[in-house]
Amino acid sequence: MFQHLRWIAVLVVAACPAWASAEQVRYHFVPADACGRMTQVPAGPEGTIGELKRGLGARALPYPYGVKPNQMVTFRHPFTGRNVTVPIRMPAAVARMETRADRIIYNFADYTVEARFLPNGSVDIIYNSGVLRPLRFD
User: Fold this and answer.
1) Per-residue pLDDT, 17
2) What distance in Å separates the CA atoms of residue 107 and residue 128, rounded to the nearest whole number?
3) d(CA 61, CA 54)
4) pTM of the model
5) What pairs with residue 61 in β-bridges?
6) What are the φ and ψ backbone dihedral angles of 59, each rounded to 5 degrees?
7) Distance of alpha carbon 85 from alpha carbon 38, whole angstroms
8) Residue 92: predicted pLDDT
9) Domain edges within the chain
10) Residues of the chain by 3-state class (helix, strand, coil), percent to 5
């Protein structure tokens, strides 16, 4: 019985992918000076400041809205070995910090902020709302 309900739920989500969509916005920062300050450059299609991805689709959409940062975070860039300072918008909550070789992820349970370090010395900041939630910058 429960197996049938599970399959029905999967079919409903597959038929209406907008219900299961997560939103993800990516911003790109490049070095501005030798002191480690970073400046934001267009990251999205059509020259928009951000790149939006929705649901399971891999197609990037233009995102013309900026995010007002509330913190300046300094990281040691794993590829260049230099400190870089990036403006980030963090929620007012406690995060679990996860580290990978090329990224640092601040996990707020239902929301993540990821700093992804690129070999050319730049940094992508990715805001991810998680499944079934629209992206909001409170």
Assistant:
1) 45
2) 10
3) 8
4) 0.81
5) 52
6) -75, 125
7) 6
8) 87
9) 21-128
10) 10, 40, 45
Query: Are residues 113 and 106 in contact, defined by beta-carbon separation less than 8 angstroms?
Result: yes
- Nearest Cα to Cα of residue 72 among 115, 42, 135: 115
Looking at residue 132, what DSSP letter applies? Answer: T
DSSP string, 74-118: EEE-TTT--EEEEEE---SS--EEEEETTEEEEE-SS-EEEEEE-
Tell me, what DSSP letter sits at residue 29?
E
In angstroms, rounded to a whole number, what is the distance separating the alpha carbons of residues 40 and 32? 9
pLDDT by 10s per residue, the chain, length 138: 556 555 554 444 444 444 445 789 999 999 999 899 999 999 999 899 999 988 766 688 999 998 999 999 999 999 999 999 999 999 888 999 999 999 999 999 888 999 999 999 999 999 998 777 777 766
- The Cα–Cα gap between 100 and 73 comes to 17
CB 37 within 8 A of CB 26: no
Sequential DSSP letters for 36-49? -BEEEE--SGGG-S
